[in-house]
Structure formats: C-alpha cells, structure tokens
Amino acid sequence: SILCMTHVCVALHKVIHQNNFQDESAMLPKFLAVCVPLVFDVARSDKDREIVCCALECVNEMLKEMKGGLIADEVYFDSLVELVKDVLQHKTACQKDSEDDTFCDDVEDDSELTTVLVDFAGSILPSLATAMGGQKFTPYFKKLPPSHHPKEGRKRSERSLAAGTLAEICQAMKESINPFAENMYSVFMRGIKDNSDEVISNSVFGLGVLIESSGATLAPRYPEILGILSTFLKQDGDRRTIDNVLGAVARMIITNPGSLPLDTIFPTFVKWLPLQEDYEENITVYSSIYGLLSSNCQVAIEQLPTLIPLMITQLANKKSG
Known about the structure:
The protein is mainly α. The chain contains 16 helices and no strands. Helix 9 (181-192) runs antiparallel to helix 10. It is globular and about 65 Å long. The relative contact order is 0.06.
C-alpha cells in the first residue's frame, strides 16, 4: 500500500509541475500529509525488514522525483533526517534483538537484508543533498554519524557502502564540499589502503569526485594522488578499480590540468583505455580528452592515432554507454 501511495504522490507531483496545473485545492500537500508520516512510521516501527526496505525505497523515490517538494515542510525534513540516522545507527524496530528487545549492532549483520536496509538508508543521503542543494545540506553533513565512515574493524560490505555513499554525497554537494575537502581526502585515502577491491574502487571514485567538486583545493596533493593511483595500474589488477583510477585522473584533468604533468600521465592514461567494467565513467573520461583536444593540447593531439580508433570502437559498443 505504501508503494502505491508513493507512486500516486510522484504522479500527482508530475501532473501539477509538468502541466503548470494550479493545485487550488492543495491536493498534493493533503496527500503528502497522509502518505509521508505513514511511510516514515512504517520505516521506524515495523519489524519486518523487507517492509522497512520498501518504505526507505519509497522515501528515496519521492526525493529523487519531487526533490525539494518533499522536504519543503520542515517537519518532514527533520523526521527524515532522524529516520536515516536511526537506521544507520541500528536503532529502528526491525534492527532490535528479538530476544531481549534491546538495540544490537550484531543481530543478523551478515544477512543480505541487513546490508540492503542500511544501503537504502545511505542512498537517501545523496538524494537529500541533491534535493536541498549542497549549501543547505552542509549543517547535516557536519553531523553525519561516524558509523557511516569506511573504518577498519567494520565488515567489508559496510566499509564499501560507506565509501560509496560518501562519494555520492560529495558529488551531490558539489562546491559546498570544499570546507570538508581535507577531511574527506583523509577518509578516501584510508579507504584506498583497504584490503578489499570493492572498498578501494569506491574510495578511488570518491577521491575523484572530491577532486572535481573541491576545485583547486586539492591541487597541491596531485603528485601524491597520482603516485598512489598509479600503483593500481597493473595487468592483474582489479579492473573496476582501474576504471575508477582513470575516472579520477580524468576529473583532475577537467578540474585543474595546469597542475598535472600531462606529458607523462596522458600517454599512460590512454594506454589503459577503454574502460572495461565501470562504463558510467566514460562520460568523464572522454570529456577530459575532448577538453584537452579543444585547447590544442599537444600531448593529446599526439595521441590521436590511438584515440580515434578507440573512440570509434566505443561508439559501436552498446555496453560503453
């Protein structure tokens, strides 16, 4: 039922905003007044994790489709923030120990539903940052629970999820992440030293979007970053990580090419193309190449005999996006 109500809210929002419909009877606010508190209550109090996952997915769908329209009411916003914090800190009803009714971090931690539950809650954060705008999201970002950092001692799936979510938040906050650039840099660099390929890959992606979002702030660290990223470029390396390394380097090229030794790194960059797993980075990678060619960068022009057939192949490859 909550899924149906969510779809109705989203559909009603689209009808009103796409057709400039005058909602004189306040149909949407009235519907939200019933739907939103119900969805929040289900997510917080229901003991069935599948139902709670569904409720969190509904919240995220409304955020993505309605953006600020969902959180215009401060009551909804405050309730949503508290709900996400409670899920991340394992404080909702479905995360209780069924035997002694106390909150417990290790209840079914290995279950897929537990991971999915926290995943859904975590995915709400970048959606919330996008809906609010980075500047308005900043006060909440400061209070982000420490449990949502990829720290040692936590399970691999949790570390990977934390790194990925923080990366998406940085991407959503854009330049507003700048005051936190040094702190986030340390977080992602710790993740890059993890023993899990998945955590490393997400952390490399996070480092790349942090570089892009923070502008020239991290430019003095480019030599250190390049040195570390280069260690992942090996024939037997994890291919998704390699693709994310190329994406991170592409973001450095787009953001601050003058701070890079392009004559050294660009031929190596081209050598490891095309992307083989993380095709979503293709837009970033080829945008960086286009930018260099548009500025008549000699190093990029010299690579055209390699780049042209590569680009033709990519255009013919449906998987490459």
